[in-house]
């Protein structure tokens, strides 16, 4: 039986920038062994929530991994693997060196570097310079970094951006394998079709407010697609953001 204590719990996050409330009492859970998609149109508040979860920004409310704040972890990569847009690092640095530097900072064995490169299909690029990687290869490298410490929690911001159809198919299989291993997975997306293909649970956010949450099947109940759910739950017109599809 799967342990259910390794959950990501977001509770009552409120965040204001100037006059604007960008997060309004955001609460939800991502459960162990499940893929939870955090879905919403551009500007809905997804990245802001994930940044708070990863200790990169502050707010009221709490955001925890198995009951602990990200900032309390001494070697965070061994607990949480996260991938955001961009891979960082100097463009002239080689892929393997990049991973070794990150591994060293978290007390992770260099042996793990070759392992994660193999998992994400980048072994042949280990000597390539970061600046020469394609967008999709950069995404894979971001996933390699996330996996370095073999973490329980995986948090990914728009992980399929820049991937071609083969890459997207690969990603779906990859992330399912990770959840089957009992990992807790939270990924953000503004693409409904992507979420429908990969998620067990879904949390929909719009204008900084969670408007639906639950098992994908339940949220979709009696509706043909998440597009219908989204339009049925948001104000007509306002939510019709072409970029959402
Ligand atoms: N530092 C900041 N100062 C002012 N406003 C901000 C700041 N950071 C975010 N915002 C605003 O907060 C809202 C939510 O932004 P956020 O990046 O969280 O959205 P998102 O759902 O991740 O969107 P996308 O899909 O486009 O990445 C947006 O209206 C954005 O302009």
Automatic annotation (TrEMBL):
Gene Ontology MF: a single term: ATP binding
Pfam families reported in the protein's UniProt record: ABC_tran
PROSITE patterns named in the record: ABC_TRANSPORTER_2 (PS50893)
Keywords: ATP-binding, Nucleotide-binding, Transport
Coiled coil: none
Domain ABC transporter: 8-232
InterPro entries: AAA+_ATPase, ABC_transporter-like_ATP-bd, P-loop_NTPase
Similarity field: Belongs to the ABC transporter superfamily.
UniProt protein name: ATP-binding cassette domain-containing protein
């Amino acid at each position: 039986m799967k342990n259910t204590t390794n959950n990501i719990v977001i509770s009552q996050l409120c965040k204001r920038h100037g006059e604007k409330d960008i997060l309004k009492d955001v609460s939800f859970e991502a459960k162990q062994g499940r893929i939870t998609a955090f879905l919403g149109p551009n500007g809905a508040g997804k990245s802001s929530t994930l940044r708070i979860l990863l200790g990169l920004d502050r707010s009221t409310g709490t955001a925890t991994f198995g009951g602990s704040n990200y900032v309390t972890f001494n070697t965070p990569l061994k607990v949480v693997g996260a991938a955001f847009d961009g891979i960082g690092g100097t463009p002239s640095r080689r892929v393997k060196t990049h991973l070794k530097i990150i591994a060293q900072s978290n007390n992770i064995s260099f042996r793990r570097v070759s392992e994660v490169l193999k998992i994400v299909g980048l072994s042949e690029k280990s000597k390539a310079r970061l600046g020469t990687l394609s967008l999709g290869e950069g995404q894979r490298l971001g996933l390699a970094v996330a996996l370095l410490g073999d973490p329980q929690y995986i948090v990914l911001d728009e992980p399929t951006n820049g991937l071609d159809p083969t890459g997207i198919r690969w990603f779906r299989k990859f992330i399912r394998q990770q959840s089957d291993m009992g990992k807790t997975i939270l990924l953000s997306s503004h693409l409904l079709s992507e979420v429908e293909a990969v998620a067990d649970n879904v949390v929909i956010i719009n204008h900084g407010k969670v408007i639906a949450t639950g098992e994908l099947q339940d949220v979709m109940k009696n509706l043909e697609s998440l597009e219908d759910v989204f339009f049925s739950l948001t104000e007509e017109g306002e939510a019709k953001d072409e970029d959402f599809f």
